[in-house]
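Morning!

This is the sequence you dropped in the shared folder:
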Amino acid sequence: MDQISLSTSREEGAKAVRFGAFFGDVKQEFKKIAWTTKAEAIAYTKVVFIAIFLGGFALYLMDLLVHGALWIMSALVRSMGG
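The structure's back. Tokens below.
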């Protein structure tokens, strides 16, 4: 019985050490990150909003084009069919 409790406490101790080492490694990795400045974050945000706007506008224009083409085809079919 004592053998089982000793091995269990050793395993828990090893897990605690690995857990602590993991967070130590995470802290070291966070130091390596090149964080953006406030000005860079604002500039990147503007670029994203402009790209979203332009992409949405392009989709809108394509929708208008397809809608117009379908309307023209519909009008042709109606004029031919009577």
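Headline: The chain has two helices and no strands.

More detail when I'm at my desk.
O.
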